[in-house]
Design a protein that fits this description.
Elements (H helix, E strand, L loop, with lengths): L2 H13 L26 H15 L4 E9 L2 E8 L5 E8 L19 E3 L3 H4 L6 E2 L5 E2 L12 H15 L4 E7 L3 E8 L2 E9 L5 E3 L6 E6 L10 H19 L3
Length: 248
């Protein structure tokens, strides 16, 4: 099935109210911008995405950053306890070509909604699973992808060499079931793509348009130094300390 058609099959019935999403800990439609015709700034978008997170009521989730593109504002959320990215959301700008025609004549402009593509179709914990039309529910608890982050970055670079020569793949952000990778033009952001963590399939995010700017809201925490790691470190260091303290 054509990717664009598959996304429309999922998104249009939800936007029309044919399918209702009810899962507080997963992605859903909630906060809306002041109006669907007024200009939305990135500061306004940050506040709307933050309000959305508050309404979810999940203390383990945090808003990482908000990126502004020609067509929309993009937000990424992550789990504090694992450091794994959870899901991606959008706010469509007024006048975007993606919000007209079959997408509803602008009816999706200004509301927080799930990003189409891998976020919906590949996300094994927070995405659309089960049936063509799909419903939101959490499925796999772990994230045992068979493709590593380094392999995903290599796959992304091979794709870029063929489709966008001269562009480079950034670091691979780990989501449940896939990796999200920034596309760089030199040191500057150009766009993004995703790599399926099981099949290696690449999905370019064609709906953003030209990159404009980024605001980081919450840094990704460094991995916690667990108790087992501390014991192992002491086991390795203590003999050396004792050896140095031995009288000569």
């Amino acid at each position: 099935m054509n990717k664009a058609l598959a996304v429309m099959i999922v998104l249009v019935p939800i936007a029309l109210g044919v399918i209702e999403i009810r899962l507080p800990s997963a992605i859903a439609f909630t906060e809306s911008a002041p109006t669907q015709t007024s200009t939305i700034t990135i500061d306004t978008a940050v506040q709307i995405f933050t309000n959305y997170l508050t309404r979810l009521g999940n203390p383990d989730l945090a808003l990482h950053e908000v990126e502004e593109y020609q067509n929309n504002f993009y937000a990424s959320y992550f789990e504090k306890s694992t450091g794994i990215f959870a899901f991606q959301m959008l706010i469509w700008k007024p006048g975007s070509i993606w919000t007209g025609g079959m997408m509803g004549n602008g009816m999706m402009t200004g509301i927080v909604m799930p990003e189409p593509g891998p976020n919906l179709m590949w996300n094994t914990k927070y995405g659309v699973m089960g049936g063509m039309m799909g419903i939101y529910h959490q499925t796999r608890v772990g994230n045992n992808m068979t493709i590593s982050a380094d392999q995903a970055k290599s796959i992304a670079q091979s794709y870029l060499d063929g489709v966008f020569p001269g562009k480079t793949a950034g670091d691979a952000d780990t989501y449940y079931g896939y990796y999200n990778i920034d596309i760089l033009n030199g040191n500057n952001p150009f766009g993004m793509l995703s790599v399926n963590g099981y099949t290696g399939q690449v999905w370019y995010h064609s709906w953003h348009g030209t990159y404009i700017q980024t605001i980081e809201v919450t840094p990704i925490p460094a991995p916690e130094f667990g108790q087992n790691s501390a014991i192992l470190m002491l086991t390795l260091i203590l003999p050396a300390i004792l050896l140095l303290r031995r009288p000569t």
